[in-house]
Write a structure and sequence with these properties.
The complex is a heterodimer of chains A (about 575) and B (about 180).
Chain A lengths: L1 H11 L5 H63 L5 H15 L9 H4 L2 H16 L7 H143 L6 H31 L8 E4 H11 L1 H6 L3 E5 L7 E4 L1 H17 L6 E9 L7 E7 L7 H4 L10 H5 L8 H11 L3 E7 L3 E9 L4 H20 L5 H17 L3 H13 L9 H17 L8 E2 L1
Helix pairs in contact in A: 1-6, 2-3, 2-6, 5-6, 6-7, 7-13, 8-10, 10-13, 14-15, 14-17, 15-16, 16-17
Chain B lengths: L2 H25 L25 E7 L2 E6 H6 L3 E7 L4 E9 H7 L7 E6 L4 E5 H6 L3 E6 L13 E3 L17 E6 L1
Parallel strand pairs in B: 1-9
Antiparallel strand pairs in B: 1-2, 3-4, 4-7, 5-6, 5-9, 7-8
The chains are: A alpha/beta (about 575), B alpha+beta (about 180).
């Protein structure tokens, strides 16, 4: 059973173990670390790309600077060789200056980045050119300047080469540093990726195994449950067939009894009639033996007829859907009719029957007046049969008004007869059961009278109470639910449904939940005429707080007392049970 | 604060200040930049005279030679641009390249070579030059452009035009325009 419950829980809820949670957390952390590492690496790559892109601009500037420098040196050489005028040299020098003034992406001019030796040489040549005359050099000047200018031209060419070499070294250094940083970042990213893949892979495998295991357990459970349901369905079908068969048998039995009873009643009536005719026409007064024979014949035939009639009545009661023909019935009229029907018997045995009721009250119930009348007749006839000394019977009608429950009409029949042994009262509704003192006293009877009464009471949703004391008498009390109009009936049903629901609903130990339920049902029951119960539920709800998780014993006792009272307010079960 | 972080903060603030400065400079009236090139020779070169040829335009057999005087006759305007090499805003007196091309009957589809005094060459179609509203600058802040600052004439482009961001097309010390 425990295993089954565990399986149920597993099937109902997908669960992750603590270990899986820890592993998932580590995987999540490694994922974040990996993400940051990738972002960092990408950022480094972007920076590197920017550096490379930026490097192209100074590179072109450096190359152009070198070019302009070489052009300038050529112009210097041409000028020294008397091929061009000084202006051409100056223009070449100006174009070189223009190149050196370019501001690169790092905010510095090309000239600022040039080696100091380069600029120094440049300015030396400037001073040489500036100190010479304009136009083409004279031979004399050429001879003088050649000594100083030629070494400077060579120096300038060397410096121009150095300009590029230095720049290349700087760029190489920068690229190497970037590549190193990128390589380190990539290595860390790779490590994190491997770690993340390992952890998340392990987690997925673990989860997968757990899920497959749960799936298998669930599938087995479902299959087992399916088989169990199939067995139950088969059992239910068999039971249903048995019930149908039993119902069919019962109907056949009722029909058989009804037919037999009809067939028996006619000849019995004839027999009783002829016995009566014979006893009155024949001169039997002088023959005590004949008198006794006729009395035995008459009594037994009457008992037999009574038995047949009772069987007919029971058969009639056992037939279904009797309630469909229920109508409002005034119990006062029914009681008066019953007394009237039994009038001859009452007169014959010199009984006094008192009918006690309140003329201002009405005693209307829903039912079959014939059946109720039959029940009253049976009870009154019993009182007559079993009262030998005191011959007084009291029939009382009372309307019982209930604030929190349905009103009742109570009918009591009190006699001062021989009474019923306490131990036997609960058996009185059984068919053919007769009280031991009735048998002892030779009181004729079939044992079906009270069975009919019990059946009628059950059919009408009433209840029977029997209070009896040997030698002092018996009180039969029948409590009928008062008649309600269809609308009142609907409301009553709803309110009793609500009451039943409230009884179930407040049976919780969780205090906040209990408080909420008491409040909910208290208000609703107050609305549906259970004012007192509703108020008490609300009072208990107000007394509780939401601070406590579980209600204490005092609260639960109060709640249980209320439940008892609520159950009492529910309509009695329609079983026709006899309460002693 | 870590040194790297400190450097980032300083660079950011400096960038903001520089940006604010540039914005201010852009919104204010352009001021003449220093006419002195720190890397130039001490003796300045005399600019070409008004009737000296400063530009030769060749369209196959057709050759047109321009002096400052003849260039001015084509019609000049003032144009303020952000000079991308020295990275300052400067105001130039310009003649549109479209007028110069027209004077030599250069068709829009023609491949035009711009040749500088230092033999630097940039080539593009006439249409692309004119679509970017290419201009020939003949003066800066109302004065001749020195040789060591791109003069005496140079090609410039208005801000945000297509070729304005194409630095090779800003040919300095222009000498010749010819059709390929």
């Amino acid at each position: 059973m425990e295993r089954r419950q565990a399986l149920d829980r597993n099937v109902m809820k997908f669960r992750v173990t603590s270990g899986q949670k820890v592993l998932a957390f580590i995987a999540l952390l490694s994922f974040f670390a990996l993400s940051f590492s990738i972002i960092g690496t990408n950022k480094a790559s972007i920076d590197q790309s920017k550096n490379l892109t930026a490097a192209t601009v100074p590179a072109s500037s450096i190359i152009f600077t070198q070019r302009e420098t070489l052009v300038y040196t050529i112009r210097l050489a041409q000028w020294l060789d008397q091929q061009i005028p000084r202006r051409e040299v100056q223009i070449a020098r100006a174009l070189l200056a223009q190149r050196l003034a370019i501001v690169t992406t790092d905010g510095k001019s090309v000239g600022e980045s040039a080696p100091s030796g380069y600029l120094k040489t440049l300015f030396i040549t400037d001073s040489i050119v500036d100190s010479s005359s304009a136009g083409i050099l004279t031979t004399k000047e050429r001879a003088r300047l050649a000594l100083v200018l030629n070494p400077e031209i060579d120096n300038l060419i060397a410096q121009a080469r150095l300009l590029v070499a230095n720049y290349q070294l700087a760029v190489d250094s920068q690229l190497t540093a970037s590549a190193k940083a990128s390589r380190n970042g990539d290595f860390i990213t790779l490590l994190l990726l491997i770690f993340f893949m390992t952890i998340s892979g392990a987690w997925f495998v673990w989860i997968g195994r757990t899920s497959i295991s749960l799936y298998r357990s669930g599938r087995n459970l479902i299959l087992a449950e399916g088989k169990r349901l199939e067995i139950l369905a088969a059992e239910l079908a068999a039971t249903n067939e048995a019930v149908i068969e039993l119902e069919s048998l019962n109907a056949s039995k009722n029909e058989f009894i009804s037919n037999i009873s009809h067939e028996l009643r006619t000849p019995l009536t004839s027999i009783i009639g002829y016995v009566d005719v014979l006893s009155t026409t024949m001169q039997i007064d002088s023959d005590p033996q004949l008198i006794e024979i006729f009395q035995v014949l008459d009594r037994n035939a009457t008992i037999l007829l009574s038995l047949v009639q009772s069987l007919l009545t029971l058969s009639h009661l056992d037939s279904p859907n009797k309630r469909d023909s229920f109508k409002p019935v005034d119990l006062l009229d029914v009681a008066e009719d019953a007394i009237f029907i039994l009038h001859a018997e009452i007169e014959k045995k010199q009984f006094s029957v008192n009918l006690v009721y309140n003329p201002e009250d009405s005693y209307i119930v829903a039912g079959d007046s014939g059946l109720i009348s039959q029940a009253f007749i049976n009870l009154i006839a019993n009182s007559i049969k079993f009262s030998f000394a005191a011959k007084e019977i009291e029939i009382g009608l009372t309307r019982l008004i209930h604030e929190d429950a349905r009103n009742m009409i109570s009918v009591s029949i009190r006699d001062q007869g021989i009474g019923i042994p306490q131990a036997e009262i609960s058996h009185l509704s059984e068919r053919f059961y007769r009280a031991s003192n009735a048998v002892f006293e030779h009181v004729p009877g079939t044992g079906l009278g009270l069975a009919i009464v019990a059946k009628v009471i059950e059919l009408h949703g009433a209840s029977l109470r029997i209070e009896s004391e040997l030698g002092k008498g018996t009180i039969f009390t029948i409590d009928f639910p008062e008649y309600l109009s269809p609308l009142d009936n609907l409301i009553a049903n709803r309110k009793f449904d609500l009451l039943a629901e409230a009884i179930e609903g407040i049976q919780v130990d969780d205090q906040p939940q209990l408080k909420a339920k008491l409040h909910e049902y208290g208000g609703a029951l107050g609305f549906y005429d259970f004012a007192e119960i509703g108020e008490e539920l609300l009072s208990l709800s107000r007394a509780l707080t939401n601070d406590e998780k579980v209600a204490d014993l005092d609260t639960l006792n109060l709640r249980d007392q209320l439940i008892v009272r609520m159950k009492e307010a529910l309509p009695k079960k329609e079983t026709g049970e006899i309460n002693v | 604060m870590k040194p790297d972080t400190k450097r980032i903060v300083v660079v950011t603030l400096a960038t903001l200040l520089l940006y604010t400065g540039i914005s201010g400079a852009q919104s204010a009236t352009p001021k003449p930049a220093s006419t002195k090139n720190p890397y130039g020779a001490s003796i300045p070169i005399d600019p070409p005279g008004p009737n000296d040829v400063v530009l030769t335009v060749t369209n196959h057999s057709k050759v047109v030679k321009f002096t400052f005087t003849s260039l001015r006759k084509l019609g000049t305007t003032k144009l303020s641009v952000y000079e991308p090499f020295v990275k300052v805003r400067q105001t130039f007196t310009v003649v549109s390249l479209a007028k110069i091309f027209k004077s030599a009957n250069i068709l829009p589809t023609a491949n035009v070579i711009t040749d500088a005094l230092n033999d630097y060459i940039y080539t593009n179609t006439a249409k692309n030059f004119t679509d970017s509203q290419g201009q020939l600058a003949i003066a800066r802040f109302g004065a001749p452009i020195p040789y060591d600052q791109g003069g005496p004439i140079r090609i410039i482009y208005p801000d945000k035009s297509t070729l304005s961001s194409n630095l090779p097309s800003w040919n300095w010390s222009l000498n010749v325009i010819k059709v390929k």
